Amino acid sequence: MGRPPCCDKEGVKKGPWTPEEDIILVSYIQEHGPSNWKAVPANTGLSRCSKSCRLRWTNYLRPGIKRGNFTDQEEKMIIHLQALLGNRWAAIAAYLPQRTDNDIKNYWNTYLKKKLNKLEAGSDQGHNIGVSVSQPMSRGQWERRLQTDIRMAKRALIEALSSNKASSSSTLLLAESNSNLSSENSIFYNSNTNKPTTQSMCYASSADNIARLLKGWMKNTPKLASCAASAVTQNSFNNLAGADTAFSEGITTTKGSTSTSTVELSETFDSLFGYESLDYSSNSEFSPSLSPEATPFQDESKPDITADGIDMPFSLLEKWLLDDAACQEKLGF
DNA sequence: AAAACGAGCAACCGCAGGGCC
DNA sequence: AGGCCCTGCGGTTGCTCGTTT
């Protein structure tokens, strides 16, 4: 299946995005939702390929993205998940709300990998990468420990799933379980029709992201910015959030089998990632457990464990991932 | 003060998979 | 059934900025 390169046409701009381009892209997605990327360059007049537009949206402009320092807990999660899943960054990102796969990948490649290598080299025993140990362990021992962990986790998942499915009558929507997070109604995009529908808000927008780019833009082009800023109103933000909500809506409507007591999952999810410790100060509206692309309930983001048709019970994962977090403290994570 | 170096990060590239016709 | 198109993912590149020499 040969495929013509998507970005090799003349006149297709490459390189860093300008604030103006960001505004155009965001405005378009507000209106149409994040879909049909092929049409985006044509409809917006952006001299960018569709891929570039999608990437810019998912990695930077998308609401709910948290940037900057990774917390200790996030770091531990990444280390554990990388040990479990390998370099499947999208799957790992599914367990780290607000973080993009690109972000996690960069963090791993530029920081964590080196840190772990250093730790490994520092301890001549060559023990422990991500998997907890309370005493020095050889690499072979560590690998066996990891395999055992994975087997145990899988078994536990299967057991938990059977009990979960039995009690899956409470298929409350994520939106419902979190509707208290925002008193506003907002426009949702139906995942099938891509038409806006009004529902209670289940995924609040990240005005922060847009505000940030506007801020930067104003710095550069004050005149133009004031005009565009007025165009991107709070309503627009809500609208934008709704556009993104297509993801989560798709989850709740098309993944019936996944709706194993989503309230419970949501709560467990909260506890798993210790949201209270995360920084939402810049975005009070954001609902962490509902990050559209970073949600573990999303199809393509699910770990391989689901390959057997098993949904991930987070309480078990939580236990498994964090049960020896205390030991890692000793290693300086 | 300036050049060299390194780290961090945004963006690009190419492949794979799935859906549609 | 097979080809085409679109999207998602992971690896890689290259730019920017801070630090060191």
Comma- or semicolon-separated keywords:
single chain; mainly alpha; Arc Repressor Mutant, subunit A; two-stranded antiparallel sheet; 14 helices; 2 strands; 53% helix; elongated; DNA-binding
Structure characterization notes:
This protein is mainly alpha-helical and 333 residues long. Among the domains are: 19-61, Arc Repressor Mutant, subunit A, CATH 1.10.10; 72-119, Homeodomain-like (Arc Repressor Mutant, subunit A). Helices cover 53% and strands 3% of the residues. A hairpin with a 6-residue loop joins strand 1 (185-189) and strand 2 (196-200). Helix 1 packs antiparallel against helix 9 and helix 1 (19-32) packs across helix 11 (234-254). The longest helix has 28 residues, at 139-166. Mean pLDDT is 56; it is low at 1-5, 124-139, 163-207, 222-316 and 321-333. The protein binds a DNA duplex (21 and 21 nucleotides) through helix 3 and helix 6.
CATH topology group of the domain at 72-119: Arc Repressor Mutant, subunit A
CATH architecture descriptor text of the domain at 72-119: Orthogonal Bundle
Instruction: Provide the low-confidence segments as ranges.
Output: 1-5, 124-139, 163-207, 222-316, 321-333
The largest beta-sheet arranges its strands as 1-2
> Based on CA inertia axes, which overall geometry fits?
elongated
Number of helices: 14
Q: Give the percentage of residues in beta strands.
A: under 5%
Tell how many strands the DSSP assignment holds.
Answer: 2
Instruction: Write out the CATH superfamily name of the domain at 72-119.
Output: Homeodomain-like
H and E string = HHHHHHHHEEHHHHHH
CATH class group of the domain at 72-119: Mainly Alpha
What's the main sheet like? 2 strands, antiparallel
Rg on CA atoms, Å: 21 Å
Mean of all residue-level pLDDT scores: 56
Distance between the termini: 45 Å
Structural class: mainly alpha
Helix content: 40-55%
